[in-house]
Write a structure and sequence with these properties.
Length: about 375
């Protein structure tokens, strides 16, 4: 059942939309599948998400904005036993905006909005003592920046936090990654477990709040620690030119919280024991994707998957009122030549109903929502 390099790519590149709408701020899923490809390999891809997140109870038509993010990777087999890799992705993020006309999340002129961006560059070195084992590790460089505005009655209106703004300037920090993979090429079996450390950011922030002259503006710093995570990937051949695959991911969101100073000071008036967080989550995220890939002929192959994401707790922040999802995906791959391929995928998400909250107080229900993701990827062997 030994598969050639092209059919190996059916699974190891998998669907480009693998972790598109995940819990918390998770986006890319932080895959290192490109580094586990045989030989010298490079890829580049783009993923697009079009989501609808609405609340009939709160008269919110759709607060989710469409977004896209790129990814790229290169892996070089330097010697028989040493491999080197570099992976670029945008692991975390959020883009959302409520209608300015919303009484709950708007003030007539502006609506509540969130824009969180991250970038990550992972350098990897792997040691393969034989054809079965691969031990790898490396540093991770990561940036984070954000721009968030709170508007409307959900935040106490103009009398409290309804004119709050925060801009977190772009800041870089470092973490690390380590893992091990085991493979049996004769049966296309490969298993890998990868740990990523948390990364501590201390970002310069500019906060403003109009109705409180004594607390109207503050330039300080905000601590934000992106969470540690574990990815478990598995594949095996199950029939001629057919692979079964699975991915399980855990992300430590339950200890994630962003606590700006000015926001905390104002939210504690007149209750000093209550300080509101800008973003926090109550549960860790667990997600899983399982599926099959099949090579139809020398040029065409495809894959299908089913996935589940637990979410990061409920009630949840109004900046992302979704509790996990179920999803199904289809992918196709065209290989004009033995050394490169073009891959496209689509995934549909049934988003979990959630209770949105601010400062621990429920605001309303977001129900019957969905999302559609698309991905395109090009892979090349050299």
């Amino acid at each position: 059942m030994r598969l050639n390099h092209l059919s190996y790519a059916i699974l190891l590149t998998a669907l480009p939309t693998a972790s598109l709408f995940a819990a918390g701020l998770d986006r890319s899923g932080q895959s290192i599948s490109a580094f586990l490809q045989p030989g010298n390999y490079a890829e580049a891809g783009i993923t697009v998400l079009d989501a609808e997140v609405k609340s009939n109870e709160l008269n919110v038509d759709d607060m989710a904005k469409s977004y896209y993010f790129p990814s790229a990777a290169v892996k070089v087999q330097a010697t028989d036993k040493i491999s080197l890799g570099l992976i670029y992705d945008q692991p975390y993020g959020a883009e959302a905006e409520y209608d300015a006309a919303s009484q709950v999340f708007g003030n007539g002129a502006q609506g509540t909005s969130v824009d969180v961006k991250t970038e990550s560059l992972t350098a990897l070195i792997g040691y393969q003592p034989n054809e079965n084992w691969n031990f790898y590790a490396g540093p991770v460089w990561q940036t984070v920046e954000a721009n968030i505005k709170l508007r409307g009655a959900a935040y106490g209106g103009n009398a409290k936090l309804g004119t709050y703004n925060i801009e977190m300037e772009r800041e870089e920090a470092y973490g690390w990654l380590a893992g091990v993979a085991y493979s049996i090429p004769e049966i296309a079996l490969k298993a890998a477990i990868t740990y990523r450390s948390e990364i501590e950011h201390n970002t310069k922030s500019n906060e403003t709040l109009l109705p409180h002259p004594s607390l109207s503006a503050l330039t300080s710093s905000v601590d934000a620690t992106t969470p540690q995570s574990v990815n478990l990937d598995f594949q095996t051949g199950i029939a001629k030119d057919t692979l079964a695959f699975a991915n399980v991911r855990w992300v430590h969101w339950s200890q994630f919280a962003v606590k700006p100073t000015l926001l905390g000071n104002v939210s504690s008036i007149p209750a000093p024991h209550v300080r509101q967080n800008l973003i926090d989550y109550s549960d860790d995220q667990w997600s899983a994707n399982v599926g099959v890939g099949h090579k139809f002929n020398s040029k065409w192959s495809g894959s299908a998957s089913v996935g589940y994401d637990s979410g990061a707790g409920n009630p949840i922040t109004t900046l992302g009122p979704v509790e996990g999802n179920w999803n199904v995906g289809l992918g196709g791959q065209y290989s004009p030549a033995e050394n490169y391929f073009i891959q496209a995928g689509v995934k549909y998400f049934w988003l979990g109903d959630a209770t949105a909250q601010t400062g621990g107080n429920p605001v309303g229900e977001f129900e019957n929502n969905h999302a559609l993701g698309y991905g395109l990827k090009i892979g090349y062997r050299f």
